[in-house]
Design a protein that fits this description.
- By secondary structure, the protein is an alpha+beta fold.
- It contains three helices and four strands; from the N terminus they run E-E-H-H-E-E-H.
- It starts with about 25 loop residues before the first strand and ends with a helix.
- It is elongated, with a radius of gyration of 19 Å.
- It is about 30% helix and about 20% strand.
- It has one domain.
- The structure holds zinc ion (ZN).
- The site of zinc ion has 8 residues, from helix 3.
- Zinc ion binds next to helix 3.
């Protein structure tokens, strides 16, 4: 007698929404995107996306994110490129 096993598969998708008030962002033209994009400072990006500086460096090496120099010489990152880099990984 053969035994038939029933396998039940359940997929659970979790989506998180993070609301950040008073997010300091700069709207400038991103040469890589070719449009006006929002840029945020790297420390802010690390905090919002819960990523490390190593991951940022990896994204830069893979040319997934676009960086610029901000008004106060800080490095700022193109938000749309960071979002797509995060989804890509
Ligand atoms: Zn960009």
């Amino acid at each position: 007698m053969t035994e038939t096993k029933k396998i039940r598969e359940i997929n659970i998708e979790v989506e998180r929404v993070r609301v950040i008030s008073n997010l300091k962002k700069t709207k400038i033209k991103c040469l890589d995107c070719g449009t006006i994009s929002e840029f945020i400072a790297i420390p802010t990006a690390l905090q919002i996306f819960e990523i490390t500086e190593i991951e940022i460096a990896k994204f830069v090496n893979e040319q997934l994110i676009h960086l610029k120099k901000g008004i106060n010489n800080e490095i700022i990152v193109c938000l749309p490129s960071l979002i797509s880099a995060k989804n890509y990984v």
